[in-house]
Structure formats: C-alpha cells, structure tokens
Design brief:
Elements (H helix, E strand, L loop, with lengths): L13 H4 L4 H4 L23 H4 L9 H14 L20 H7 L2 H4 L11 H18 L3 E3 L5 H18 L6 E5 L6 H7 L3 E5 L9 H7 L4 E6 L12 H9 L4 E4 L13 H4 L3 E3 L20 E3 L11 E4 L5 E4 L15 H37 L15 E4 L1 H7 L3 H10 L6 E2 L8 E4 L7 H20 L1 H5 L12 H6 L10
Parallel strand pairs: 2-3, 2-4, 4-5, 5-6
Antiparallel strand pairs: 1-7, 6-7, 8-9, 10-12, 11-12
Helix pairs in contact: 5-13, 7-13, 8-9, 13-16
Length: 496
Amino acid sequence: MPEPGGRAVSSPLAAAGAEPTLDRISAPGRAAWSLPPLDVPAADLDLPESSAALPPLPELSERDLVAHFTRLASRNFAVDIGAYPLGSCTMKYNPKVADWAAEHPGFRDLHPSLPAELSQGALEVLLDTEAILCELTGMARATFQPPAGAAGELTGLLIMRAYHEAAGHPRRAIVIPDSAHGTNPASVTLAGYEAVHIPSNDRGMVDLAALRETMSAEVAGLMLTNPNTLGLFEEDICAIAAAVHEVDGLVYYDGANLNAILGVARPGDMGFDIVHSNLHKTFATPHGGGGPGSGPVAVVERLARFLPGPIPVRLPDGTAGWEVPDNSIGRVHGHQGNFLVVLRALAYMRALGGAGLRRVAERAVLNARYLEHLLAGAYDIPFPVPCMHEFVASAAAIKRATGVRAMDIAKSLLDLGFHAPTVYFPLIVDEALMIEPTETESPETVEALAAAMLDIAARAATEPDSVKGAPHRTPIGRPDDAAAARHPVLTWAMGD
C-alpha cells in the first residue's frame, strides 16, 4: 500500500497474513513518542563517544508500535480470555474494580519513603488488610514485606529460627510431607535447615504415625498446606499440629490453597502458628508473567515480636505510624512489599464482604468436585477422597494403553482453547494432571473443559499421533525445553 510520499510498503496483512518484522516496517525518522520542550539548561555529560551512540532500535510510528505489542499480547493466554485450570496456582479472574482502586493517583504515585504523616491513607490500607487477613486466618499480627509466596515461606522460616534461638535451642530440621508445595524444600534449604520428608498414606494425607516418629528436639517445625497439594483436606490436622507442638516445634501454613477454606475454616483454629497468604492467588490480584506478587505473613501473638520491621501500628493519638518489633528478624524487603497488590486485595475483600469470601471457597470446591466427577472413568483419580478446590487426575492408564502422556494431553488442550493444568506434580502421582478450575468459572465452562479432556482421551485411543503432535494451532509447536533452559537467548536482535 502507498505510504504518504508515494513509497510502496508491504501491508502488515500481506504475505498470506504473515506478521511484519520490525526491521521491515522501520524507517529513519519515524517516532512513536514526543517529549515536551527542554525546560532546564543543557549539560555536557562528557560521555565516551561509544556510549553516546544510539542503540540500533527500529524506528516506528505509534500505530505500528501499538500494533506490534498488541499482536504479541494476543499470543498470550490469560484469565481474561478463558479457563486457566493451573493446579496449585488459583488462576482466577481478576475483577476490574480492584484495578480501578489501584489506579488512584493518591496511591499509585505515592513514594514508599514518604514519612508516616504523609502516608496515612496507605497505612490505613495496610492496617485494614492486616485486620481482615488475621480474622480469616486466625492470626494476631502480619507483615506485608514479602513480595511473593516463596519470600513468605522464607520469612516464616526465619521467624521460626528466631523463636528457637530466643529460647536458647537452635534447631536443625523442618518436616515436609512428600506432597508439599514445590517451593517448600528450597525455602527450607535457603533458611539453613535440613528438610525431612514424611510419606503420604493411602488416602493421600500425612501419615500421622510416620510424622510422630520424626518428632524430636531437633525439629524446628512443620510446613504444610491444608488442603494439601493433592487437593485433599488433612483430616488429622489437629493431631498433626499437636504432635509438632509437643516438641515445641512450630506449624507453618503454606497459603497456596487458602482459596479452598476462605471464610469456612481458619488455619489458626487448626493449630498453625505462622500463615502466609498469596494475595495474587486467593484475593484475585494479577498473577502470572513474573508478578507482581504479595505473600504477607501472619503469626500468632507469641511470635509477633519477631516480625520483620517496621510494621504499621495504631498510635495513641488515633493516627497510624510505624513500629519495629522488639526481636524483629529485620527487613526482608526494601519497603512494604508490592503495595498496590495489597490495595487490589483490599478492594476485592471489601467488594465481596465476609459472606462473599465464604462463597468463593464454597464455589471453588463445588467446581472442582463437579469437574472431577465428569472426568472420573476416562482419567484415573488416585485417591478416593472428596477433593476440595483442586484435584489430581492421572493419565497413567492412558499412557499404558496408547503411549499418550500427561504432557500430550496438556498440549492438546491448548488447541481447544483452554490453558493446560499443572502436569507431573505432585511427584507422588504418576502422569499427574493437577486441575483447579477456581470459583470464577461458570458450570458451562467447567462442562466445556471436561468435554475437551474427554475428547482428548478418546482421540488418544484412535489417533494417538495427533495428540502426541499437539498443539497444532498455536504460533509455535513444542519448543525444546531442555535446550531453552541450557542455552537461553537473553537478548533481542533486529530482525528476530
């Protein structure tokens, strides 16, 4: 098509719909930006000539630049596009009212180093969110410094260490079930502890007898999520907590699965001493793509003196300020974590209210149990216990009969418009498919997801090569994951 000036250029829709490369649509002098006039004196920075050269970036119009990034964005799957049943991740729809709150300039433009007297609104957000989290979890105080769930795990373990050191008895080991959340063992090692694994019983829950055998004066605590990573509620949770407390150990709640019990049951009432919550999971703030996250850690009263400082407090004059706990472990983040994620979570909490938060858990469990029921028969369900918000199915029988693996089923789902579930985790289930539909999906969507998985199972028996070759409709097929991990391409070059 002719460009102003008469030069012919290729249409972005030319060549049978091929997308234009940036170098093909770049032209000298084009710009997608404009800057205001310089209102300060120019300064000679006396930079080396090599550093003054402009990088070889494409020169594009705003239209082409926007089109480029919009095309890239359209390749990504997102919770705003379709069902995202990624087990253990709670990839739920994010209500836009939370984004509206986070875009308020009074919060968005607030510098984190401002003094308390100029940050009263932000402090009230932190205090309000802390009060709700403590009510939901049965804890006494919380910190918002951890910027993600794994950071929350490390913070909780450092609080454990500080507690035992203050008692004059530093300890060596942390007990973890074999169905533990994936980051738990790494966090234990990073905190300087030894991980002691205990097996699951034939119902997919902690083997209580094996747990009791591991208990000693060297055990600092237990890391557990409830429901566990198989999506099953630990029926012996009170006895589990009691066994750990008998040796003065602490019980840590990994908040990955808090979505299943929100407003129904509280970790504190089960015997947990430390709870981290994933605001980017349970409370519907953006999740995926590397963040931002938020993993606040709440503790029982006797551990509050170890929290990272400073923490927000109510002052005698009624205003809000900062306070460093007496035996604080010190900062775990430069400021108060990702504050706008906390603000989004508070907007979500306030929009739903207590009754609405309880319905979140009830509907999450209902959706998961409905989907599990629809898939039973075509897929193995390894543990015959009613699931909570997620469940683990197995493709082991399909693999034995057809050669089609869990990964092939996951890739085939991409062709059918669904994000894949988590595969091959937890490790104790062969050919695992870990599925969490969340409460935000309608019954029709749950049924469509089930129909897609049943169709894939049927095609595995009649057209196994087609399933093994999936996906067929995505921009790329199957990348070489091993090569990508060993030889990553970390830079971009013109024409790529």
